[in-house]
Write a structure and sequence with these properties.
Layout (H helix, E strand, L loop, with lengths): L1 E8 L2 E8 L2 E7 L13 E3 L3 H14 L17 H10 L8 E2 H12 L6 H9 L12 E2 L12 H10 L5
Parallel strand pairs: 1-4, 5-6
Antiparallel strand pairs: 1-2, 2-3
Helix pairs in contact: 3-4
Length: 166
C-alpha cells in the first residue's frame, strides 16, 4: 500500500507518495511519466515521510535551502537511473550541470571511456521525485534549457527561484 497526499505548490498540485517509510514520488499533476513504476494500491493518508516532505517543500518554496539528506528517499528505477539520480542530488542549490557533465561522471565512476549524454537525459527525464531530486538543475552543455517532465515553464521558475545562472 502506497501512501499519497496532494501538496499545493506555487507551481500547482504535486502528488507525494511514500512506501516503507521512504519517499518514492513527487509528481506535478499531469507531468510526463506521472506515477511511472507505481503499480501498488494507493491510499490517501499522511505518514511521517509525507509530513516531512511537506515541511521540506514549504521550506524550499519559502526561499530556504533544505538539504536532500533530511528526507528518506526511495525512488524506484533501474540501477542506471538510480546512479544518475544520485548524481543529481549532488548538484548544489542554485547551480546547474549538463547532461554531458553527468555522463562524464558516470563514465569516470565506472572506469569506462564514455557514457551517452542522451542516456543520461532519459534517466533525468524519468526522475520520480521532482524538485527534491533536482533534475531541473540539468541543462544542455551549451547552456540551453532542454525538456523537463513537469514542463519547461516549471523548470524556469525553479531555476529562477534558486537564482541559478542559465
Amino acid at each position: 500500500m502506497i501512501n499519497t497526499i496532494h501538496y499545493k505548490s506555487p507551481l500547482g498540485d504535486i502528488l507525494l507518495a511514500s512506501d516503507n517509510n521512504r519517499l518514492i514520488g513527487a509528481w506535478f499533476e499531469g507531468q510526463k511519466y506521472y506515477m511511472a513504476n507505481i503499480s501498488d494500491d494507493l491510499i490517501e493518508r499522511k505518514d511521517k515521510v509525507l509530513i516531512k516532505t511537506e515541511k521540506w517543500l514549504d521550506s524550499y518554496f519559502n526561499g530556504e535551502k533544505p538539504s536532500i539528506d533530511e528526507l528518506p528517499l526511495g525512488p524506484k528505477g533501474s540501477d542506471f537511473r538510480l546512479e544518475v539520480w544520485k548524481i543529481l542530488c549532488d548538484i548544489p542549490y542554485g547551480e546547474t550541470a549538463s547532461y554531458k557533465d553527468i555522463a562524464f561522471k558516470i563514465a569516470e565512476n565506472r572506469g569506462i571511456e564514455k557514457m551517452s549524454a542522451q542516456a543520461v537525459g532519459g534517466a533525468v527525464g524519468h526522475n520520480p521525485i521532482s524538485i527534491i531530486i533536482p533534475c531541473h538543475r540539468v541543462i544542455a552543455s551549451d547552456g540551453a534549457l532542454t525538456g523537463y517532465a513537469g514542463g519547461l515553464d516549471k523548470k524556469i521558475f525553479l531555476l529562477k527561484h534558486e537564482n541559478a545562472e542559465f
